[in-house]
Amino acid sequence: MFLAGLLALLAYGYHNLNYNWQWYRVWPYLVTVTDEGFRAGVLLKGALVTLKISGLSLVLTLVIGFSTAFMRLTSSPVLNALVVGYVETIRNTPLLIQLFVMYFVISPVIDLSAFASAVIALSLFEGAYASEIIRSGIAAVDQGQWEASFSLGMTPLGTFAEVILPQALRQMLPMLAGQGVSLIKDSALVSTISIFDLTMQGQSIVAETFLTFEIWFTVAFCYLAMTATLSACIARWEARVRMRG
Questions:
Q1: What pTM was computed for the model?
Q2: Each residue of 11-26: b (16+ CB within 10 Å) or e?
Q3: Angstrom distance (rounded) from CA 233 to CA 58
Q4: In sequence order, which residues have a C-beta less than 8 Å from that of residue 118 and are 6 or more positions away?
Q5: What is the DSSP string of 30-79?
Q6: In this structure, what is the dihedral angle of CA atoms 205, 211, 215, 217, given to the nearest 10 degrees?
């Protein structure tokens, strides 16, 4: 009922705007058919850039998240202080500011490209949240699981890989899935540093054609398709983990 009411409200509003819908002009920006076959349009090329940035950032996010979570779980006060400083600094400052600092301040010093700056900034930002998710998931496993495994002669590494991690994954996966979805959506900010991702391509097309509603609805659908696919894949993985548990 809510969705129906919302759609009715939007339809009424668009009717009052007297907007001339031109959906047929959108398709060439997604894909074109030539004598050589199908060719990706600028929106599809932008979506591929978004996927590339998001995929690399997701891998680095997990690496950073697991590394800092392990450091936080150690008894070293130095490592704990470093991780807490990193996590609190990242979580309490806007991603856009971190992106600007990485691109305009740090990248000229160490000669990073805009693409690398975007990946690193996104990874550090999402990694801070993933770190807390992973740490809480590991800490939620009962201490008795460690003691029981050690009593059976298992090594610490074997205990973690075969006993602790499978149980922790059941706690972590839903929240990590949400973080992965947030990463894809947050990647839209890389358009502010002149990376021609999906959002930047959409802005360029709207400025050139004035197909405001058609292009932004198409861009929104592309993001929805990417996030929904990721959520579905993680949901299947979560179901397998639960079945094995």
A1: 0.87
A2: eeeeeeeeeeeeeeeb
A3: 14
A4: 53, 57, 99, 102, 103, 187, 190, 193, 195
A5: HEEEETTEEEE-HHHHHHHHHHHHHHHHHHHHHHHHHHHHHHHHSS-HHH
A6: 160
Q: State the angle between helix axes of 42-73 and 114-139 in degrees (0 to 180), rounded to the nearest 10.
A: 40
Instruction: Please give, one letter per residue, the 3-state secondary structure of 120-160.
Output: HHHHHHHHHHHHHHHHHHHHCCCHHHHHHHHHCCCCHHHHH
Give the tokens for residue 39.
Answer: 């060719």
Task: Answer whether 51's CB lies under 8 Å from 120's CB.
Answer: no
Q: How far apart are CA 66 and CA 165, in angstroms?
A: 11
> Is 124:101 a contact under the CB 8 Å cutoff?
no
Let me know how long the chain is: 245
Which amino acid makes up residue 154? M
Helix, strand or coil for residue 245?
A: coil
CA atoms within 13 A on the CB side of 80: 5
Quick: pLDDT tens for 181-240.
999 999 999 999 989 999 999 999 999 988 888 899 999 999 999 999 988 888 888 777
Whether the pLDDT of residue 109 is over 70: the answer is: yes
Q: 120-137: b or e for each residue (b if 16 or more CB lie within 10 Å)?
A: bbbbbbbbbbbbbbbbeb
